[in-house]
Design brief:
globular; eight-stranded mixed β-barrel; 5 helices; alpha+beta; 28% helix
Length: 232
């Protein structure tokens, strides 16, 4: 085998290696977003309406506060059916039925500490340090935003990738300590990254604020969704 042939073979091998490595890297980076987008579009085409099963509690049976209004919930023995969403966490979690978002919420995360929130976003969605507890007057601020590297900016925003599809009147459900809190979207805004007013806003009624990157996977802007509590 001549040296020239060996060189050609090595160059080709290296080229193929780079190509397949690039394809795999793109798949790993964009996979969660492609999956979320495909699932959402198929639901729209097939007219699948995803909902969290309504739990019947002892208090509801007695005519008191229903589980939809903050009563205790337990999904332990509930079997998932077509279109149903079983929360991944009722200890502290978020479900957005319209976009089939379902994630754990990591509490008390400093949005100014990149290392801290990058670690939190590998587990789910982050609650900004100083947020008001669910159901209480004030600002409950949840985010999934830019992080340490481009490939993580995309992957760690996957949970909130479809926030752009939310409109006024859509429902966002928060679970905390096995209780359910329903919020209804009333505002949708795109702001600059240095606009922290939505984080520092004070309210005399319960408000849920959701934040992610816009466009997804970039550092250009922030997409802000605000919702009001409709249960008591």
């Amino acid at each position: 085998m001549s040296n020239r042939f060996k060189l050609i073979l090595a160059v080709r091998f290296f080229g193929y290696f780079l190509f397949f490595a690039g394809v795999i890297s793109i798949f790993v980076m964009l996979g969660p977003l492609v999956q979320a987008e495909t699932s959402y579009r198929m639901d729209r085409i097939l007219k699948v309406k995803r909902t969290v099963p309504k739990m019947i509690t002892s208090s509801e049976q007695q005519g008191n506060l229903a589980s939809e209004n903050g009563g205790p919930v337990d999904f332990t023995n509930v079997e998932a059916s077509e279109g149903s969403i079983i929360p991944v966490s009722t200890e502290y979690g978020i479900v957005i039925e319209k976009i089939n978002a379902n994630a754990k919420v990591v509490a008390n995360v400093n949005p100014g500490n990149e290392r801290e929130y990058s670690r939190a976003l590998t587990q789910g969605v982050a609650e900004a340090l100083g947020s008001t507890p669910p159901g209480k007057p004030g600002n409950l601020y949840l985010f999934s935003h830019s992080t340490d590297a481009p490939w993580n900016i995309v992957r760690l925003n996957a949970v909130f990738y479809l926030l752009k599809e939310l409109e006024k009147g859509d429902r966002v459900i928060i679970f905390k300590n096995d209780r359910r809190y329903d919020y209804i979207v009333f505002d949708k805004s795109i702001v600059k990254p240095d606009d922290v007013s939505y984080l520092t806003n004070a309210y005399n009624y319960p408000v849920l604020t959701l934040q992610t990157c816009d466009p997804p996977g970039t550092l250009l802007n922030r997409l802000i969704i605000r919702a009001k509590l409709v249960s008591s």
